[in-house]
Every structure is written in structure tokens, then in C-alpha cells.
From TrEMBL, chain A:
Pfam family, one: IER
Protein name: Immediate early response 5
Region called Disordered, residue ranges: 59-108, 135-310
GO biological process: cellular response to heat; positive regulation of cellular response to heat; positive regulation of transcription by RNA polymerase II; regulation of cell population proliferation
Domain of life: Eukaryota
GO cellular component term of the entry, any: cytoplasm
Gene name of this polypeptide: IER5
Compositionally biased intervals (Polar residues): 269-282
Biased composition (Low complexity): 72-83, 300-309
From TrEMBL, chain B:
Protein name from the UniProt record: Serine/threonine-protein phosphatase 2A 55 kDa regulatory subunit B
Similarity annotation: Belongs to the phosphatase 2A regulatory subunit B family.
Sorted UniProt keywords: Repeat, WD repeat
Gene Ontology MF terms in the entry: protein phosphatase regulator activity
One GO CC term, this protein: protein phosphatase type 2A complex
């Protein structure tokens, strides 16, 4: 368990570093980013290989239960690795619409969610449409997470009637966020704010919502919950991480140094970052060269990948990194 | 080891306690020239400061051989790459002196993208007594000229002039991390993350690519070049280190493109030490050939290793620089310290190796006696003629009076750049924006 926590923490720190590297003077340092990606890979492997599926299923929906792990852990953003379905997103989806299996572009969601999630570590800004259905801390966290994305997302959502977006959209930045489920209900899922906390299946439904709710929500869920998995399960775990994003942010401040104002960190960019990250150095993620990647991801997703549309597994995430690959080559 | 060091503290720019340090003043490289008479430093602001050793004077025997500022110039300026919308930092990454071939001194300085050849000349005489010009250079009224005189050279105050002789630009897509002058004194190489180029010192509009490890698909990238150096005697040999901890010795006679190494020096990883950060701490941050050319010295995050060119399987010596940090790698990762690139240095006789650490500590290892010492570069220790006192970091267990505990180490005070005089026991230590020069006043038995 400690390993998983540690792995989570490391993943969030690593993603933050990659994000910051984009704004550092002198351009992206290839060597440092390569090393960070290696750490990310190791942490991800540990995280995914450590089975504790039932851990975060807890409590009734909406009951924020402190994560068993670590109240004191500042930077441990729960959602961990690549394949984790971004809980926040799932949550957001739930809030807004009826839970339904969506053939959304998985990768984007995951990526967005992850990104958001990292972004969610940012201080809360008031948030948007997602908020109402949220309960308690979840709502706060979600708002926090969403806040920064609001702008870009809003634009994207506004414009996008199309919930199914190719991953190419991804790297495009805030303006083109894949809006599998744009808050606001453009999505066919409907804007039903009903939210069923219950349905938080964060895991299975990565709703692409740029505003992923508290990032921490329930990464692990993915595996445990399955499609449409217990909302309750989702909810609770989701609740717990709520605190984390803020704390995470604050804790990370000193460590990060150059990122002086977290609020400025656009989760939109982070989403891109995640997708970018996923594609760049994906050779590292492969256990075997060439086509190994898919197998690896698939294997790791394991039983979770019950349905293609449900789980944000690595596969979809990594599939959509094409634009970044191009960027890397250009760089 | 019997080292007693005199210290002379030379702030490149005096830093006042309590006043925040200017980032531009942080020293980013230190290099002695081939005789040790000159010492060049580069900083983050793109400036180069050259110090010269004063000749020993009978009048002031105590101040023999101290270094004073000789010249200061702006080598690189910040630039902007409009195509990629990237700012190019002016920070001087490396300085390398050319062997002196005439009265002038030459050095190469490089930032992330551009290498420049600078010529440093002295002027201590000037001609006086022109017939047509007066002392200020204005034309004389010819009617006042009644006789002819031969202009003579008269001594003047020493003036050091520095001029850029060559600019080697546009050779690198990635960030340049090393330059190395070949023993043939005609060529030099520059290395970035993925490629190494060979230049001729007189030709700036083209260079030859001799190593290219860029994969066809950048997604397959697994390692980058971290440092490289020419062999001190064999002009066809060079070595480059990678982020995976391996060294590759290449022979330029074998092929035009030296992607295939002649020798690969790699130590198998110790599985018991595996952690999330194993790859990071095995990345080699510096590689230096010994003066003899028989050995190589490498520095990774926690150790320095001596390799014999004749043995590829493992280093012949491994020294722990600060193994107490092994349990703190996660925090060091968070605060970015784990990415610090420490350099290493040989002494003139290749018997002692030196490298920096945190808390303004630096370490020396005597290869013969196997003894090591930790010293500190600080204001307190740098009073003139003060003897450096060995320091100790305690890791639990019994603690002596002056020990520093691991938790009270200051990780913002790091000594990344050190240099050792090519012949004598004089060392230059760069501690953030201060330069410390220590001299050994006792004839040590290190040789």
C-alpha cells in the first residue's frame, strides 16, 4: 500500500514537473524530461501492479471518508497513472448527466482527466456548471479542479457539439478540449444534472469533461468498479481526495519553485501535457518494442478493460498522442 | 592526504548576506588553462571572467601566486528562436581553453546553441611620436611639422582586449552540454543531447556530425548524451556518456559516423538498489579523461567512478560521494536536486579526484591511500591563510561536535563546478555565485 501511495505521489509530482518544463526559460530540457518520464513509468508500473482494488470502495455515496492512506500526505494525488480513469471526470459526468456508457474517446478523457487531475491540485477557483450536483467536499474539490479549466473548456464546450473528438484535438489545448461531456450538457448524455452521486463511476466513464472533479477521486475505481460500478464506491473515495488537491498544491509550491502561481496553471495545458507525455517516450512505456505497447497496456488494464468504452486504459490514451509525437520530432 | 589549503575567496560579484542573489551571477563553469596561469569562469548571465595568477613576488611572499581578475567580457546574450518560439539562454555551459600557440590566449565558450572562439590579447605598449597625428589622434597642421621623427613604442598600462574570432552557430538542434578541444589543436567537438559535431577551429559554416543517437521515432527515445570529451593524446579517440550510465569510446578512424562504439563501458545495475529513481541517479553528469589518458572519471548522482580504458565490464574504483542521500531520493526528486549535474576533476598526477556536493561541501578521494576528505567552501573557511577543516556529515549514530546532520544540509548550496590546476595543488570551487580558490601550501605527498 505504501508503494501505491508513494507511486501516486511521484506520478503527480512528475506530471507537475513536465508541465513546468514547458514554461521554463531556455525551452524544454530533453534530458530532464526523459528522466522524469522514466520515473513516471516506474511509478506507474508499481501503481498498476499493486492490486488493492477494494481499497477505495468505501462508504456511502457522498460521504467523504478520509483516504486510508494518508491524511498527512500532501502531495499524494490519488489518481495515478496513465491508465487510471480520471475520477474527476467521471464524477463530473455523473453530476451532469445520467450515467451511460459512452463511446467517448477514451483517451481524451483519460488524458483530460489526468491532466485535470494534476491541475486539480491547484487552488480552487470557483467553478462551474459542475458544481451543483456535487456534494460537500466533492463539490469544492471539483470546483477547484474545474475552475482553472473553465475558460478554455467553456469555449470548447460551447463550440463543440460533437462529443466524440479525436485525440488530435487533445493536444490542441484548452480551446479544443474533447468534450465528451461538456458540462452544460451539450453532450448527448444530457445535461441532466441529476446527479447522481450515485453514479459516480468515475472509473468506467471517463467523461470527458474538462473539469474533472477532484482529481483524486477514484483512480482505482476503475478496476474495481467496472462499468457502471457502484456509485457509492465511487463517491466515497472521490470524496476523500477532495482535500488533496488543495493541499497538494500548497505542498508542491515550495518544491516547485518556479511555479509561483498555481492558479495560473491551465489544466487545459496540463491535459495536453498528459497526452503529450503519453506519446513522447512511449518507447519507455513499452515492455517490448514495436507493438508491445498495446499489449502491455492491455495486460495491465486487465479485467478492468471489460469494455472498450468504459475504461480509460492506457491504450486509448496513448493512441492519441500523435500530434505530440509530431511536436517532439519537430523539437 | 595531508592537505592544508590556503584560501582566497574571490567573489566574482560580491554577494551580501541577506541580499537575494542575482541569478545571473551564478557561476556555471570553471576551467584552468593548460598552464594554470589563467582561470576562466562563466556565469548564467553569459559573462566570462578570467583570473590570472600573479607571479610570485619576493616582496610579498605570502601572496604568492594569487589569482586576480584579468578580464571580464560578455560572451553570450539571450536570444530568441522565432521559429520555435523558444528563448535561448545566455548561460555559459562550458569553457575550454585552446593550447597557447602565440602570445594571445584563446578559449571556446558555449551556451545552449552557439559556440564562440575568443581571442584574448594584451596590449602594454603603444606607439607615440607620429608625424601626422598628435597624441589624441587628430591630424596635425602640416605647417607645424618641421622635422621627421620615428614613432617609438612606449609602455602603457596593461590593457586586455578580448575579441570574438569565430562564431559557430546553428550546429545544434538540442542543448549543447559539452565541448572538447582535440589534441590536434585544429578541431574540437560539441555535443548536445542527441548529437555530436566535429568542427574545425577555422571553419564556422559547416561541421561534421560524428555521433547521432536520435531515434527515427522520438517516441522511442530512451537515452541522451550527457557529456563528451576527446582523449588527451589520441586525436582519433573520444568518449561520450549517456543518461543510462554508460560510456562509449569511439574511434574516428573506424567510420565517418561513430554511432557504433569501439568500447562500451557499463556496470550492471545492482538490483538491490532498485528504486523509482534508479535511472536518474545512474545518469552520468560528467566524464573526464585522466591526464595520463589511461583512465576515465565519471560522476553520477551519488558516486564517482574511475574506469580503466582497458576494462569495459566495470569501473576499477567507485567512491561514494554522499550515500546518505540514497534514502532521500524522493525528496530530492521533488525539489529537483536529483537533477543536479555535478562535475568531477583529476589532480595533475591523477592520484586524487575531486567532486562537489551539497551544503557547499566538496569531496576529495586519494586513489592511493583510499582516504577521503570533505571540505567546505564558505566565507568562514575562506579567511586568508585559513586552513580548511575537514567536515563530516553524520548519519545517525554517534555525532561529533562539528558534524552536520543530513537533515540540516542546505541543498540550495551546491558545488557543481570544480577545477584543479593542471600541475599544482590549487583548486577552484564555484559555490553558487562565489568563486573560492584554495592552494596547498604544504608540499603534500600526493605525488
Amino acid at each position: 500500500m505504501e508503494f501505491k501511495l508513494e507511486a501516486h505521489r511521484i506520478v503527480s509530482i512528475s506530471l507537475g514537473k513536465i508541465y513546468n518544463s514547458r514554461v521554463q526559460r531556455g525551452g524544454i530540457k530533453l534530458h530532464k524530461n526523459l528522466l522524469v518520464s522514466l520515473v513516471l513509468r516506474s511509478a506507474r508500473q508499481v501503481y498498476l501492479s499493486d492490486p488493492c482494488p477494494g481499497l477505495y470502495l468505501a462508504g456511502p455515496a457522498g460521504t467523504p471518508a478520509p483516504p486510508p492512506q494518508q491524511p498527512g500526505e500532501p502531495a499524494a494525488v490519488p489518481p495515478a497513472g496513465w491508465g487510471e480513469p480520471p475520477p474527476p471526470a467521471a464524477r463530473a459526468a455523473w453530476r451532469e448527466t445520467e450515467p451511460q456508457p459512452q463511446p467517448q474517446p477514451q483517451p481524451e478523457r483519460t488524458a483530460v482527466l489526468d491532466a485535470q487531475w494534476v491541475g486539480g491540485a491547484e487552488p480552487a477557483t470557483s467553478v462551474t456548471r459542475v458544481g451543483d450536483a456535487l456534494q460537500g467536499r466533492e463539490a469544492d474539490a471539483a470546483e477547484a479542479a474545474w475552475g482553472s479549466v473553465e475558460g478554455p473548456r467553456g469555449a470548447a464546450a460551447a463550440g463543440a457539439g460533437d462529443p466524440v473528438r479525436g485525440s488530435d484535438v487533445f493536444p490542441e489545448g484548452p480551446a479544443r478540449r474533447p468534450s465528451a461531456c461538456p458540462p452544460g450538457g451539450e453532450d448527448q448524455r444530457g445535461a441532466a444534472a441529476a446527479s447522481p452521486g450515485a453514479d459516480c463511476c468515475c472509473a468506467p466513464r471517463p467523461v470527458v469533461d474538462e473539469s474533472p472533479a477532484p482529481p483524486a477521486v477514484c483512480p482505482r475505481k476503475r478496476g474495481a468498479a467496472g462499468v457502471g460500478g457502484g456509485p457509492a464506491g465511487c463517491q466515497a473515495p472521490g470524496a476523500t481526495p477532495l482535500k488533496k488537491p488543495r493541499r497538494n498544491l500548497e505542498e508542491q509550491q515550495p518544491g516547485r519553485g518556479e511555479d509561483d502561481d498555481p492558479e495560473d496553471m491551465e489544466t487545459g495545458n496540463v491535459a495536453n501535457l498528459i497526452s503529450i507525455f503519453g506519446s513522447s517516450f512511449s518507447g519507455l512505456l513499452r515492455k517490448s518494442p514495436g507493438g508491445g505497447r498495446e499489449e502491455e497496456e492491455g495486460a495491465e488494464s486487465g479485467p478492468e478493460a471489460a469494455e472498450p468504452g468504459q475504461i480509460c486504459c492506457d491504450k486509448p490514451v496513448l493512441r492519441d498522442m500523435n500530434s505530440w509525437s509530431t511536436a517532439i520530432v519537430a523539437f | 592526504m595531508g592537505l592544508l589549503f590556503l584560501s582566497k575567496h574571490l567573489p566574482v560579484k560580491e554577494s551580501q548576506p541577506g541580499v537575494p542573489k542575482t541569478p545571473a551571477d551564478i557561476i556555471s563553469t570553471v576551467e584552468f588553462n593548460h598552464t594554470g596561469e589563467l582561470l576562466a569562469t562563466g556565469d548564467k548571465g553569459g559573462r566570462v571572467v578570467i583570473f590570472q595568477r600573479e607571479p610570485e613576488s619576493k616582496n610579498a611572499p605570502h601572496s604568492q601566486g594569487e589569482y586576480d581578475v584579468y578580464s571580464t567580457f560578455q560572451s553570450h546574450e539571450p536570444e530568441f528562436d522565432y521559429l520555435k518560439s523558444l528563448e535561448i539562454e545566455e548561460k555559459i555551459n562550458k569553457i575550454k581553453w585552446l593550447p597557447q600557440q602565440n602570445a594571445a590566449h584563446s578559449l571556446l565558450s558555449t551556451n545552449d546553441k552557439t559556440i564562440k572562439l575568443w581571442k584574448i590579447t594584451e596590449r602594454d605598449k603603444r606607439p607615440e611620436g607620429y608625424n601626422l597625428k598628435d597624441e589624441e589622434g587628430k591630424l596635425k597642421d602640416l605647417s607645424t611639422v618641421t622635422s621627421l621623427q620615428v614613432p617609438v613604442l612606449k609602455p602603457m598600462d596593461l590593457m586586455v582586449e578580448v575579441s570574438p574570432r569565430r562564431i559557430f552557430a546553428n550546429g545544434h538542434t538540442y542543448h549543447i552540454n559539452s565541448i572538447s578541444v582535440n589534441s590536434d589543436c585544429e578541431t574540437y567537438m560539441s555535443a548536445d543531447d542527441l548529437r555530436i559535431n566535429l568542427w574545425h577551429l577555422a571553419i564556422t559554416d559547416r561541421s561534421f556530425n560524428i555521433v547521432d543517437i536520435k531515434p527515427a521515432n522520438m517516441e522511442d527515445l530512451t537515452e541522451v548524451i550527457t557529456a563528451s570529451e576527446f582523449h588527451p593524446h589520441h586525436c582519433n579517440l573520444f568518449v561520450y556518456s549517456s543518461s543510462k550510465g554508460s560510456l562509449r569510446l569511439c574511434d574516428m578512424r573506424a567510420a565517418a559516423l561513430c554511432d557504433k562504439h569501439s568500447k562500451l563501458f557499463e556496470e550492471p545495475e545492482d538490483p538491490s538498489n532498485r528504486s523509482f529513481f534508479s535511472e536518474i541517479i545512474s545518469s552520468v553528469s560528467d566524464v573526464k579523461f585522466s591526464h595520463s589518458g589511461r583512465y576515465m572519471l565519471t560522476r553520477d548522482y551519488l558516486t564517482v567512478k574511475v574506469w580503466d580504458l582497458n576494462m569495459e565490464a566495470r569501473p576499477i574504483e567507485t567512491y561514494q560521494v554522499h550515500d546518505y542521500l540514497r534514502s532521500k531520493l524522493c525528496s530530492l526528486y521533488e525539489n529537483d536536486c536529483i537533477f543536479d549535474k555535478f562535475e568531477c576533476a583529476w589532480n595533475g598526477s591523477d592520484s586524487v579526484i575531486m567532486t562537489g556536493a551539497y551544503n557547499n561541501f566538496f569531496r576529495m578521494f586519494d586513489r592511493n591511500t583510499k582516504r577521503d576528505v570533505t571540505l567546505e567552501a564558505s566565507r568562514e573557511s575562506s579567511k586568508p591563510r585559513a586552513v580548511l577543516k575537514p567536515r563530516r556529515v553524520c548519519v545517525g549514530g554517534k555525532r561529533r561536535r562539528d558534524d552536520i546532520s543530513v537533515d540540516s544540509l542546505d541543498f540550495t548550496k551546491k558545488i557543481l563546478h570544480t577545477a584543479w590546476h593542471p600541475a599544482e595543488n590549487i583548486i577552484a570551487i564555484a559555490a553558487t555565485n562565489n568563486l573560492y580558490i584554495f592552494q596547498d601550501k604544504v608540499n603534500s605527498d600526493m605525488h
